[in-house]
Every structure is written in C-alpha cells, then in structure tokens.
Amino acid sequence: MNLPSIVIALILLIIVWLYLDLSIGRKKHLSFFQKRETPILHGDFDIFPHGKGLFSDYFHELRNAANHIHILFYIVRDDQFSQQFLDILKTKAKEGIEVRLLVDQIGSHKVKKPAIKELRAAGVQFAFSNRIRLPFLFYSSQVRNHRKISIIDGKIGYLGGFNVGKEYIDQDPKLSPWRDYHLKITGESVPYLQREFFIDWNEYSSEKEVNVEDYTPEQPKGKVPHQFVPTEAGFLEEKYLHLIQSVKKSIVIGTPYFIPSNKLINELITAAKRGIKITIVVPYITDHMLVQEASYRYLRLMLKAGAQVFQYKNGFYHAKSIIIDDTLCDIGTANFDKRSLFLNKEINCYFYDSAFVERFKEVIHKDILDSKPLRLEDINKPNLFRSLKEAIARALSFFL
C-alpha cells in the first residue's frame, strides 16, 4: 500500500471513530439525563445588561457573604479582572466562609495549576466541570457546562450570559461595549438554583456527595412568577419547539449565534406563514470564527419568510432571550444554536408575568434602536470568500 492510500485510510478511520464516538456518546448521555424543571416559583429580579454594573453589584454581594458562596461559570479568564474575582474568593475563604468554585474545563482552561493551588491553599473548594473522559473522548470534549450561576448564603442568586474576563467589563477594544443580560434573584426560587448547582458539583467534585438540604434555607416569596429549566443532551430543542408552537402574535429572539436545528427553523417559518411577527436580534460583529457565516443560511430563510432581523452595532451582542406574545419571556445561558440545543449544559429562567415582560421589552427595544436592519440583499451580494466560509460553517454548524 502506497503512502497516499495509507493517508486516506487513516483519514477515513478518524472520521469513522469521530462519528461513532459522537453518536454512541450522545445515546449514552440521553440514557441517563432526566428531564427536570422547577415548579412555578415567585421571586424578585434585577436585570443587568452591562458588565460593569453587574460585577460592581456582584462583587459587593460576594464581599458581604456571611455563610457560603457557590459559583459555576463557563469561562474564567487569566487576566487582571479575573484575578480580582479570584482574590475576593480567597479572601472570603480565609475569613471562614465556605467557597465552592466550579468552572468548565475547556471554557476555563486558562485557570492554571498555580492559580488552583493558591485557591485551595486559601480554603476555596475548586473543581473542573465536564472533564474530558474515556471512552467518548470526542463527545465529552464537546459537551460543555455553559451554565453561569452563583448563590450567596442561599438568599441571593445570579444567572445569565456574563462570564469572568476583561471583555465582559468592556476592556476588549473589538468587543466593547459588551451587551448581555444577567439576572440577580431573590425569593423562594434561590434554593432551587442552589440544588441545580449541587447536581453539577456532586458529579465533578472529588468530595463525597453534599446534602443540598443543608444549604437551602426557606425564602419568602417574591412577586414575579417564573421557573428554572436546566437542559442538556437535546431537551432544549423540545422546549423551544413548544414555545414557538404556542405563539399567538409575536416572538422576539435575541442571540449571539442564530444556528437553529432543522425542526426549529421549519417551525419558525411555519409561524411566519401563519402571520406571527418574528423579530431576531443578532450581533453585527462576531467573537468567534465562522458563527456569523453559519447563521446566514438561516437568516436568509427567515427574511424570505417575512421576519425582521436586526444586527446590534453598539458593541458586541451576547444576550440570550426570547419573548412570546408579551406574556412570557426567557432569559438564561442558552444561545439559539445547535451547540446549546444538543451539546451544552444550560439553564434558562422563564417568566410568566406580563409586567416583568413589559419591563424586559424596554431593554430589548433599546437594543433594537442600537441595531441596523439586515436586508436579504446584504447577504446575497456575490462574495466568493464569504461563500467559502459559509460552506465550511455549514459543515461544522453542529459544533459552532
């Protein structure tokens, strides 16, 4: 066998291995994940669309913690701002406050061994979530923990799209200002958020399983009805399909990456054909290679179906939200893309309160005013380089 034949055989073998690893790993994942969502709960919420305001509040609450701090992030960077965050955790641990930090192994790969050693020496309990594991190396490398939640003293919760790094506080010239949505939560649902944290913590921490009931003090009810829905392994697609099928008048989708599944794009087109007003807000600039080109295929279909598409121009748009008929809205960690639909661990908060929805609509309206309409002719102009990137993006869209 000559060298070219050996190379081709090896490439085919790798492709077969990747396919089997992905498909069998996914089937195994589906077999043990149990669909869950909280009951309708009541709480009070602040919405933070800017990182500087969020982290000023967040760091203040961390410094005032009196009992425990439990944190899960997808990304913690290795920069001055991230160091400030880690220093607060070390200080609180030295004060005798219980501090647990869980971060995604790939998303937070810049948290190196010396930093982890310092955290543990200060008393911070640290673990990597979603470590790459045998036998499904490729599949486990793709399933990321994209949840971003914090619980302080069992009384205050945070959930949303921000991670920890300088770009999130407008210190990246290309991506500034960073636009996102993050929630601060008080009320009876905070203990439920705590339970979700410990499901992930107990899976990946080396310590024996923690009894979550020791950390869930009963909280007074708030005003806003809502529920938390954690998803992984494909269950988010089912949830979004149900939302779209329930639309009576309008749907607004805000997402940094618009790469829906075939079922979702077909359901959106069907909704447009039955007269539903569809508005989609996406970034004008991109933070990842090929994600914008991957979205063009679907945005063309939506524009042809009569949807309005807006590209946010006042910085980078990283927000994740859906508004249904002015009566329901979703704010969380999940993007409207295949990675969030089928691979990532996500958690979203669904609000069933017209007053809160109206309040959130003002935030979305501001973002639309800071956007420019995308026209079909804008993405249909002949462009060989863009077409090449679109072809590559289409092949890789499941993983973008």
Shape estimate: globular
pLDDT averaged over residues: 94
CATH architecture descriptor name of the largest domain: 2-Layer Sandwich
Low-confidence stretches: none
CATH topology of the largest domain: Endonuclease, Chain A
In whole angstroms, how far apart are the ends? 37 Å
- Rounded to an integer in angstroms, the radius of gyration calculated over CA atoms is 21 Å
In the residues, how many domains can be counted? 3
Give your account of this protein's structure.
The chain has 400 residues and is of the alpha/beta class. The chain has 3 domains: 1-32; 41-227, Endonuclease Chain A (Endonuclease, Chain A, 2-Layer Sandwich); 231-399, Endonuclease Chain A (Endonuclease, Chain A), CATH 3.30.870. It contains 13 helices and 16 strands. The protein has helices spanning 3-32, 51-63, 80-94, 113-122, 137-142, 190-204, 235-245, 262-273, 291-304, 338-342, 354-369, 376-380, 384-396, and strands at 41-50, 68-73, 98-104, 125-129, 149-152, 156-160, 178-187, 224-231, 250-254, 277-283, 308-312, 316-317, 321-324, 328-332, 346-351, 371-373. The protein has a 16-stranded mixed β-sheet that branches. Strand 5 and strand 6 form a beta hairpin. Helix 3 (80-94) packs parallel to helix 4, helix 7 runs parallel beside helix 8 (262-273) and helix 9 (291-304) crosses helix 13.
